[in-house]
Amino acid sequence: MRPLDWVVLVSTLLAIVLYGLWRARRSRTLDAYLLSNREKRWWTVALSIMATQASAITFLSTPGQAFTDGMRFIQFYFGLPIAMVVLAVTVVPIYHRLKVYTAYEYLEGRFDLKTRGLAAFLFLLQRGLACGLTIYAPAVIISIIFGWNISWMILIIGILVIAYTASGGSRAVDYTNFQQMLVIMFGMTVAFIVIIMRLPADVSFGEAVWVAGQQGRLNAIDFSFDPRNRYNIWSGLIGGFFLALAYFGTDQSQVGRYLGGKSIAQSRMGLIFNGLVKVPMQFYILFIGAMVFVFYQFVTPPIHFNTVATTQLAGSQYAGEFTELQSAHEAVSERKQATVRHLLEMRGTAGEEPALSALRGVDAELHEIRNKTMTLMREVDPKAATNDTNFVFLNFVLNYLPVGLVGLVLAAILSASMSSTASELNALASTSVIDIYKRVIKKDGSDRHYLIFSRIATLFWGAVAITFAEFAGQLGSLVEAVNQIGSLFYGTMLGIFLLAFYFKRVSGTPAFIGALIGEAAVIITWRTTEVAFLWYNAIGCLVAIGAALLLSPLFPRKPEAPATVGARV
Amino acid sequence: MTEKRDDDLDEDAPPPFMGSWNRLYALTLAMLLFWMIVFYWFTKAFE
Fold first, then answer.
1. Which residues of B touch A97 (CB under 8 A)?
2. What is the pTM of this model?
3. Residues A501-528, mean pLDDT to the nearest whole number
């Protein structure tokens, strides 16, 4: 990082934080603090929703995913537009009409306190832990690549986010999310333009796309049905639909974004805009990764993108073997570049197939060299990050972007981290105050009292997130488990909400027991099968609904008490 | 606390574009179908 990059990075982040603080200076009521006074226009709702979903790891991992595995990850998002339409039609009017602060508040009016409590507890548990990982995951990658101290990085990012979230609440979160999303898209566009400009002058854009396709990097659609296959069109449409329905319909970090819409129309439009834009946006980010792949067809890539691990290897007892591997890697890479150029010359002729076959042979050689390198890396440090997918894009940015733009792209990535974390903290505070403190502990406080407690709750969850992030590196497989927690609980949560919305005969007790059975089904599936995680959402949801419907005749619903649904407590 | 005005809770209030919600929903689903066809072509054309 050169001085200009630092100036761009620090000034961008500070400007966004100060802008958020300034816009939120009038957050003096609970409504303003938790729901932006319910006066947001649709574009603020839309960009805030998008910025909340797009964490930093999205922008670090997604291009790397296309680089190593192609573009089939795009299918993960196919269920999202359908879910946006379903939510806009059914859920948005219900939440608005009942004037709830949180999604879980609705459940007490519809079912009972224990069902509301279960949903709020599942949310606080899952999101409370995941919030720490939202800070930790990008911090660990950036700190490895730049050699920065990870503890300080987590602390600085955490404190910046807490400062504007605790001070300004939802209004600060939404306005900073808006700005952060603009920085993110600008940063990614600049990166894309630089990648295209860095391609050899004699290789056209069409040829670059063709090269990516010939090497399996444009495999966007896969029709094969295999429940163990994470990304195909079926898991994307069905599993992705259930996941998006659960995430946007029941996770307070998203519900809070559109609950603050000025009207039903503004909230609906925010969701629909996300449904229109999300798929092409993710395609664009994946396409950047595919173009980075093409770039490295004409330039020798590092033997492994985790250059810190390779530097460590070069200083170890295996230095000699590593030097030999590096020499072989450079020689084979140069041969590969010549083979790719030959393939382009042979395009559309009888020589295309033999040239492609030769390219596959050279690729296999490179693959073997890489595998040997990773084996040595594990010999030196068994915990070394040998999966370098997350390092590909940042490595490119650092080595090939002009001065100033490195700082801009890094600002975009850190903005993504901050926007997701801020929404999560705001949602955790809302749920703690509305569903726990105000409902169970102190029912008769003043608006000012709850406002102060909301700020304290934000500080508390911020401290939890920073602490968890600081120790995440020592938690090993627990981190992986926490990463899966979202998928483990979303299906059940969705089951509870769908029962509430669409099955009017079902009362609280069967819904509660059904949720527990649904959760057990998900955990059994997770522990005993190889079913891909996207399916957990559908399994948990359908089992919870099925069990509740079977139990429903045993617990008939009492006649509805008037004006209790969604009533404030 | 800001009370919601009735027009803010009007489910029939039209969207900012397209004139009706049903048209907007249809556009969203049609765009998904469009992208899926484009990606299918993309996959087949360059494999």
1. 9
2. 0.86
3. 90
